[in-house]
């Protein structure tokens, strides 16, 4: 369990984290989402005491991280995967960490196996690829068999097999009743692994919600229908919670509040011919963009005008 209360971090004039209140609960994967610079890494650093809050507080498993007797066994964190002595082997890196906490060698072998590092464990960590470094960082996070696991952008640099591995790993950890907190700026990736979402923009909380609720709030599921007699179809579909739109004179209708199956059955019942019946789920990426549009700090400059301005300055 992670509990943040009015958590705030300022760097001079810049407020990186701005009065965040949230809980991350055990037994589910919680995604921590936000555009670049939203304050995700800063929040995660404060959770493990690498940065001190300017005001507010955050506690893990009931107390401040630094107050835990054996922090590695409480919270496993991946923040900067490549914070490893480059000349040390993966095995020795993990063994050194284990020795600081009285963790047996056998556990080092276990996490090496778990992270799929068996064949490279004796090689210098400095020569590791980005993906290998990421796996080593995850192995280190799991070393103490912690109740709470926190990973900052864990899929960065992983190949498709690695991405799938992370997804299954996070779900398995949550199923064991652990608290799993994972950041990403990719909604599509989070949608596949997280049940709960905490979304931030410019350091502020934008949403604390489930994936299902986010879709519903963003407009829910719409079904696109084309019918021979759209006016008649409107009549037979009308009811509480059902919304139907469509241009007059057009065969096409957009229906929310009924499934494609329900619409198909109603149409058949009343002998109305359908030409199209397509369920259109609002993309989560769209929902995320809508939420964070005003909170994006680093927009790509795509307009011709901007390019011309840059050109004339050069
Ligand atoms: N040590 C620091 N000194 C000054 N400013 C900082 C420092 N660390 C972070 N910031 C600023 O705080 C803001 C939040 O940064 P943070 O790294 O937490 O964002 P993020 O959500 O992790 O972004 P990304 O998706 O790019 O990783 C940014 O504007 C960043 O420039
Ligand atoms: Mg970050």
Automatic annotation (TrEMBL):
It holds the Pfam family ABC_tran. InterPro entries: AAA+_ATPase, ABC_transporter-like_ATP-bd, P-loop_NTPase. Residues 2-227 form the ABC transporter domain. The keyword Hydrolase does not apply. SMART domains: AAA. GO terms for molecular function: ATP binding. Keywords: ATP-binding, Nucleotide-binding, Transport. CDD domains: ABC_BcrA_bacitracin_resist (cd03268). PANTHER family: ABC TRANSPORTER, ATP-BINDING PROTEIN. Belongs to the ABC transporter superfamily. This is ABC transporter ATP-binding protein. It comes from Streptomyces cylindrosporus.
